Amino acid sequence: MVTGDGAYIKKINRSLILKNIVQHGLISRADLSKTIGLNKATVSVQVADLLQEELIYETQQEHNTVGRRPIMLSINSKAGYVLGIDLDHHCIQFTVSGLNGQPIQSDTIYPETNDYDEIVSLLVVHIKHYVSLYSNSHCGLVGVMIGIHGTVNNDESILFVPKYQWRYKNLKDDLQAELTDLNINIENNANLSAYAEKVYKYHQSDNLLTIILTSGIGAGIMIDGKLHKGYHGYAGEMGHMIIAPDGEPCKCGNHGCWERYSSETSLLEDLAMKYNKKNLTINDIEMFIKNKDDITIQQIKQFIQHLAIGLNNIINLYNPETIVINSKILQLYPNAVEEITSHFRSSVSTYREIVLSDLADNACVLGACALLIQRFLEVPELTFTLNEEHLVTSLVK
């Protein structure tokens, strides 16, 4: 039995009620009482407060039985909004979500500059635009979360972003100086992607790894349902795990890093050299795969073999339940998961499932939105279901 002062107990009860309203989508006061184990009077008092704050609303559910229709409670998705940003190299994605976790607006820009100050100025302009757009809601834009493709300290300062060659930057403070009244947050993109997979897809998997293969290789780690970030915040920088001593040089300064062999960027660069073509795209790879081009198929097989080496190391380190691989190219390649697992021969390497991500390019921004909502509502965990239309959009992009 939990004991403590009244304010603390009230906060816990509020958190449990909000968590269950979010999880069920629609739920009555009576069912809340049964599910949580609180008496009806306590539930009614808390619900009255949440209604007054406009965080939830009442609706009557349609049903065919005789009698009064039950009054259901649901999260008020329009009470406030969150903005998730994926700050990738020469590509910045902005996604706005309501408090129900469903994206309502997504925009992408393609800045050609690497200059830190210019990127900060761009972010300020766009964030101010979203603040203005959603200022008429009850709570307005309640927070901004930016996913960084690099190492982020636990204090949210940036240690290093390889593609931009940024070192020791405090993006949070620099943005906060221009956006003084806004809640700004900085997080590693792979951590946000892992959080998205947990919240939107693999609700029951408390020990989950997400491997991002797009611009480099990053890993997001969920242990016991919580993000694992390590002592300084750098846990998950798996792309710089050495799999080939004295191998290919990496921008981090080492040789033989995993992402030099198994990131989509490295695969595209290798194929571009073989075809003597300056810039290859994912669309080119899709065409080569459909045409069963021998050079492409052999290169992807080598890519998968190196990928499996790194995955085997990670499985032995973390013993995950679910491994989610986020890769556009592997989505296009037939039987990718089967080919990956064919390289696992050790009886020690155990896991429950390896899957390809359905969230694709949207994983980072969805995780950013979800983490902001979780913090704003002050709930221990979230469970959202993404509508099919958005999933299809993710895979088509």
UniProtKB/TrEMBL annotation:
GO terms of biological process kind:
D-xylose metabolic process
Question: Any idea which UniProt keywords this protein has?
Answer: Carbohydrate metabolism, Xylose metabolism
Among InterPro entries, the record links this protein to: ATPase_NBD, ROK, ROK_cs, WH-like_DNA-bd_sf, WH_DNA-bd_sf
Q: Would the keyword Translocase turn up in this protein's UniProt record?
A: no
> Among its keywords, does the record have Nucleotidyltransferase?
no
- Role this protein plays: Transcriptional repressor of xylose-utilizing enzymes.
Q: Which family does it belong to?
A: Belongs to the ROK (NagC/XylR) family.
Identification of the protein by name: ROK family protein
